[in-house]
Amino acid sequence: MQVPRLNNMLEGDLAFHAAVYYPSRRQDLDPSVILDALQGLVYANDRQVKVISCARFLDKISPRAEVISLDARRLAKRVGIHIDTEVVHNLNSESLVDIDKRLNEILQSVEDLREINVKLQDLINGIERKGLV
To answer: In angstroms, how far is CA 70 from the centroid of its own chain?
Structure first.
C-alpha cells in the first residue's frame, strides 16, 4: 500500500469514494478492507466515514485502489442533505445517487487532470530532447 501516514489525520465525519481496479472480474466489490487499512494512516477510526461510494473497474496490468476522502459535512451541504453529529438525516436513495454521481464527477476530474499531466510531461520531455531548454 502506498499511503503515507498523514501528520494531521482527517477529523470529523468523512465521505469516502474508492475506485477499485481489479485484475479480473471475479472479486467482489468491498471497500471495507480499504477503510480498515486507512485507519490510523488517514483518519483515526473508520467509524468517522459516514458516506461510502465505490466503483469497480478492470485493470489486469495495474490493479489498485484510488481513494478520495472528503469532509462529509461540506459534501452533504453541497448536495442538500444534513448530517447530524450521530445520525444521517434526510438521506434517501435519491441523495445517495446524487452523492455517488458527484463523487464520480470528482473522480473524472482527477482522471482528466492525470491525462493533462501526462501530456504536459510528454511535451516537456520532447522539448528537453530537442535541447530547447
So the answer is: 8
CA distance linking residue 32 with residue 111, whole number of Å: 23
- Beta partners for residue 50, in sequence order: none
Cell output for 39: 485507519
Taking the CB of residue 100, how many other CB atoms lie within 10 A of it? 16
Q: How does DSSP assign 5-30, residue by residue?
A: PPSS-B-SSEEEEEEEEESSTTS---
Q: Are 31 and 100 in contact (CB under 8 A)?
A: no
Beta strands 64-71; 82-83: pairing state: unpaired
Q: Tell me which residues of the chain have a pLDDT lower than 50.
A: 1, 83-91
Helix 72-79 to helix 93-129 angle (10° resolution) is 110
15: β partners:
51, 70
d(CA 53, CA 16): 6
92-115 tens-digit pLDDT: 555 566 666 777 777 777 777 788
Q: What is the pTM of this model?
A: 0.50
**How many CB atoms are closer than 10 A to CB 52?**
19
